[in-house]
Design goal:
Radius of gyration: 17 Å
Order of helices and strands: HHHHHHHHHH
Distance between the termini: 32 Å
Number of helices: 10
Helix content: 40-55%
Number of strands: 0
Oligomer: single chain
Shape: globular
């Protein structure tokens, strides 16, 4: 028997295909709850102040972006935040953001847009080199600026997926496999859960995976 050519894609598709995925999305984004009912602060990550990828601010970090990442339970240290808003770090990141495609889905990107040495990879390393900005926070800030191309990724998602070696490239390959089947399934799930179209396929994937495992991850004290 030949080995499965897309095991990572199959793993993802099995996780998002479960019946609970639709309900979890509705609960997270509050699409089926009464007005004023409690939902997750992360539902505002993409939409706060019109989004981090809107044309006027797509290539600079704003105070709104720093608040947006806090809705996902991370905080950029004060000195790093000031440097992003007013200092050399912000200028360096802005230069790289100009080179990272905007309004492009990961499923439509080339692997070279995400590979080691790419502007996106350089931006991630620039951020993680700063004191107090780890890989989770760096990824969330970049996902705020390029929500369709770069994914939110944290310990919970890494754990449920088995700690992939290269998450960006593995996810990119999975989204493009079988004529972009996974990408289309995520969009269909977004529609069925009545989540706004401004929420990317990547974010739908992240929320489904996170909702599936975050409770167990915390209570079981997973390594992540």
């Amino acid at each position: 028997m030949l080995p499965d050519p897309h095991p990572f894609a199959d793993r993802l598709r099995s996780l998002i295909a479960r019946d609970q995925a639709d309900e979890d999305l509705r609960r997270y984004f509050g699409t089926s709850q009464p007005v004023g009912a409690a939902s997750f602060t992360g539902r505002r990550f993409e939409h706060l102040a019109g989004g981090g990828d809107r044309p006027t601010v797509a290539n600079v970090v704003t105070a709104d972006d720093l608040i947006a990442v806090q809705t996902l339970s991370v905080t950029i240290p004060a000195q790093g935040a000031l440097d992003l808003l007013e200092g050399r770090l912000g200028l360096q990141l802005s230069k790289l953001l100009h080179e990272i495609p905007n309004h492009m889905d990961m499923a439509d990107a080339d692997a070279s847009d995400l590979a080691p040495g790419s502007p996106a990879d350089a931006a991630w390393h620039l951020l993680t080199d700063q004191p107090g900005i780890g890989w989770v926070t760096a990824g969330k800030l970049l996902a705020r600026k390029r929500p369709r191309l770069l994914p939110v990724y944290d310990q919970v998602v890494r754990c449920i997926l088995g700690r992939p070696v290269s998450f960006w490239l593995d996810l990119h390959s999975a989204l493009r496999a079988d004529d972009r089947a996974l990408h289309h399934e995520l969009l269909a799930l977004r529609r069925s859960a009545r989540v706004p179209e401004t929420v990317s396929a990547l974010r739908i994937c992240d929320v489904v995976l996170w909702m599936r495992h975050h409770g167990e991850h915390r209570t079981a004290d997973c390594v992540g």
